[in-house]
Amino acid sequence: MAVATGSLPWSGTRTRRARFRRHPVSAPICVLVVDPAIDTAALEYLQQPGLAPGEVVAIAVEPHLPHVVAAVEALRRTGYTDAVVSIGQFDHEDERIAILDAGADYALDLLIEPRELGAWVRACCRRLGRDRSDAEPAGPPEHTGPYGIALTWSDRSIELNGRRTPLTMTEFDLMAVLVRTAGRTVSREYLLMIVWGITSESKTNVLNAYVWSLRRKLATIGAPNALHTVRGVGFALREN
């Protein structure tokens, strides 16, 4: 299992991905929308092998109801259909109801005990028929994309026909999503949420900048045309 969490004390942005993971998360089966004040021990607990199925992403969201609702709604608008669990301090049942109505599967208390959180994640994934705990790989996985591009977790690199180039952590996170979804168009909104925890790109050009960087590195291994822009939608990694 991979858990993307991190140093969660509030930094001023409404949503963000954290930087604490065993290897990049590219196709999460559960997204935790968490109050930054959460005890990190609860999230660290999920890293232990066998305690939670598949891959989990944690996105820190400013602890105000409109922001939490907006984050959940933004995630669902990307077409994400798997588990969404909100964790925060709820002063009234109406707050939980609003978050559930926005698209969350569960709304859990901020002071949840680590073992209970693990059980909730497993239960939610079982309900969705996505429990992959038995199929977890023994080590960091490798994947192959269009043109035979090899993506290697151990050194965060891409390789084609013996030509290899390293990627930064964020470049690799982005490339991992694109390789896992090779041949399909991935929306800009989904990439921003899963890789950066951003619910709106109105004030950022970060995705375009990283796509440009990835294209430059793909060119160095002989695949300059592998990453396509689908105007008005997003990006696709494919051969033509």
Brief synopsis:
The protein has seven helices and 13 strands. It has helices at residues 40-45, 65-77, 93-102, 114-127, 169-180, 188-196, 206-220; strands at 2-4, 15-17, 30-34, 55-61, 83-88, 106-109, 142-144, 150-152, 157-160, 163-166, 186-187, 227-230, 234-237. Strands 1, 2, 3, 4, 5 and 6 form a six-stranded mixed beta sheet that branches. A four-stranded antiparallel beta sheet has the order 7-8-9-10, with helices on one face.
Can you put this structure into words, describing what you see?
The chain is an alpha/beta fold. The protein folds into two domains: 29-40 and 54-129, Response regulator (Rossmann fold, 3-Layer(aba) Sandwich); 143-237, Arc Repressor Mutant, subunit A (Orthogonal Bundle), CATH 1.10.10. It is 33% helix and 22% strand. A hairpin with a 5-residue loop joins strand 7 and strand 8 (150-152). Helix 2 runs parallel beside helix 3 and helix 5 crosses helix 7 (206-220). It starts with a strand and ends with a strand. The model is unreliable at 1-24 and 132-140 (pLDDT under 50).
CATH superfamily of the largest domain: Winged helix-like DNA-binding domain superfamily/Winged helix DNA-binding domain
CATH topology of the largest domain: Arc Repressor Mutant, subunit A
Distance between the termini: 33 Å
Q: What string gives the helices and strands in order?
A: EEEHEHEHEHEEEEHEHHEE
For the record, the count of structural domains works out to 2
Percent helix, as a range, is 25-40%
Q: Quick one: CATH class of the largest domain?
A: Mainly Alpha
Total strands: the figure is: 13
The CATH architecture name of the largest domain reads: Orthogonal Bundle
> How many whole angstroms does the radius of gyration measure?
18 Å
